[in-house]
Amino acid sequence: MSNFNGLMMEANLIGGQWVGADSGTAIDVTNPATGDVLGTVPNAGGDETQRAIAAASAAFKTFSRTPLSERVGLLQKLHDALMDNQEDLAQMLTAEQGKPIFEARGEIAIGAAYVKWFAEEIRRAKGEIIPAPGNDRRLMTTRHPVGVVGAITPWNFPSSMLARKLAPALAAGCTVVAKPATSTPYSGLVWGKLCQDVGYPDGVVNILTGSARGIGGAIMESPDVRKVTFTGSTEVGKTLIRQSADTVKKVSMELGGNAPFLVFDDADVDAAIEGAMIAKFRNMGQTCVCTNRFYVQAGIHDTFVAKLKEAVAALKLGNGAEDGVQQGPLIDDGAVAKVEEFIDDATSKGGDVVQGGKRHANGGSFFEPTVITGATQDMMFAKEEIFGPLAAVFKFEDEDAVIEMANDTDFGLAAYAYTRDIARAFRLNEGLEYGMVGINTGLITTVEAPFGGVKESGMGKEGGSQGLDDYMETKYFCVAGL
Ligand code: ADP
């Protein structure tokens, strides 16, 4: 069995040591495309996490004072280490997660790009000089790393979600205790190895796998962890926000989405289909910015549906490790069951399955990419995140009504619209209650821009110049008696 050129770490990193769980128990990691066991990872819990936090606290004392140029240099080396190992890292990611290999290569590259971005951005982490009310004093602000950071990440982007958290934390001079998702731990653990290889001191990066409650609980309880950054479901995010209250931690939350994708009569329909395929079927529909609801204006509706159906039928499904495959398996059987539930609910309320609609002949957690038309606001996917390869198409008549429907959700992460009317584009940006709005594109994520949601999609930004803010405290410095 491949160990991906030595990158598959089957132990946890605590204080610079690769260790098993105290209990000696381990968890199997499987390839969702084949069902094969790839290996195991430690089933760690609270005690191991407390040791990791102690190591991170000790390391913070010195790492937080590392000269800027050294921190920048380490990040540059980390970027290069990722790109030097891009192919092996991508293959390992696809093996544990299922996404097509070209997407996995892209994920490693964007993770490396975040590292590079924050290596650049930390050099501009300026404070300010504030005009004082009297001549006897000078006022300024200075910026400081927040302290030990707890980072909890999901399985859908097991490498780049950690990149967005580790890179700004390390740039700022924070130390980290991270917990990757149990189903995709290797893409998380390898960050520990690469950080060690490029010379991060022991204890700066600690990574644990195992019990979400045990590890998460210890992170949340510890007064030494000053910030928690989480990407995952809104339900778990709410629990973490509640738990953060006892020690008043800073929190950043990238939670669920329910992205609307609006196609107006004046849209370039082929461009809209291209955007729709990316915004819906990337990672088999398992991203928090994936389109959950297509709203298509009546005049263009039938053309859009015909072309969407054709594009979806042409998707090549299979083991993501094979070049050319565009759709791999879903992460597990629970994800498949959930998609089936959305389809049953929609068809029972009058929706029509016009493409796909059932488990794929490949078996396992493969599901046919699906299109449903006749979608209505009383169907489950109008409110809940699908997280699977199901495109639900609603028909609408006018702009004001569709903005209202698009906003009729507790979520507010990404929204997309296709229109050639520039005035409408600005009206949409102002009317849509979302943290990110994309016009005439289905892919908006880039390291230069702040990624993040409003409403129950979360708080805080990742990427952009704002992506550092959550890892730094602003201190007010007043020098008087002058
Ligand atoms: P997803 O379904 O996208 O993985 P989850 O919110 O279930 O979303 O999980 C995201 C991450 O949060 C995973 O690493 C998971 O193990 C972790 N997690 C789940 N429940 C808890 C919890 N109660 N406390 C801390 N972490 C948790």
Automatic annotation (TrEMBL):
<dbReference type="InterPro" id="IPR016163">
    <property type="entry name" value="Ald_DH_C"/>
</dbReference>
<dbReference type="GO" id="GO:0005829">
    <property type="term" value="C:cytosol"/>
</dbReference>
<dbReference type="InterPro" id="IPR016161">
    <property type="entry name" value="Ald_DH/histidinol_DH"/>
</dbReference>
<keyword id="KW-0560">Oxidoreductase</keyword>
<dbReference type="InterPro" id="IPR050740">
    <property type="entry name" value="Aldehyde_DH_Superfamily"/>
</dbReference>
<dbReference type="Pfam" id="PF00171">
    <property type="entry name" value="Aldedh"/>
</dbReference>
<feature type="active site">
    <location>
        <position position="254"/>
    </location>
</feature>
<dbReference type="InterPro" id="IPR016162">
    <property type="entry name" value="Ald_DH_N"/>
</dbReference>
<dbReference type="InterPro" id="IPR015590">
    <property type="entry name" value="Aldehyde_DH_dom"/>
</dbReference>
<protein>
    <submittedName>
        <fullName>Succinate semialdehyde dehydrogenase</fullName>
    </submittedName>
</protein>
<comment type="similarity">
    <text>Belongs to the aldehyde dehydrogenase family.</text>
</comment>
<feature type="domain" description="Aldehyde dehydrogenase">
    <location>
        <begin position="18"/>
        <end position="476"/>
    </location>
</feature>
<dbReference type="InterPro" id="IPR016160">
    <property type="entry name" value="Ald_DH_CS_CYS"/>
</dbReference>
<dbReference type="GO" id="GO:0004777">
    <property type="term" value="F:succinate-semialdehyde dehydrogenase (NAD+) activity"/>
</dbReference>
<dbReference type="GO" id="GO:0009450">
    <property type="term" value="P:gamma-aminobutyric acid catabolic process"/>
</dbReference>
<dbReference type="InterPro" id="IPR029510">
    <property type="entry name" value="Ald_DH_CS_GLU"/>
</dbReference>
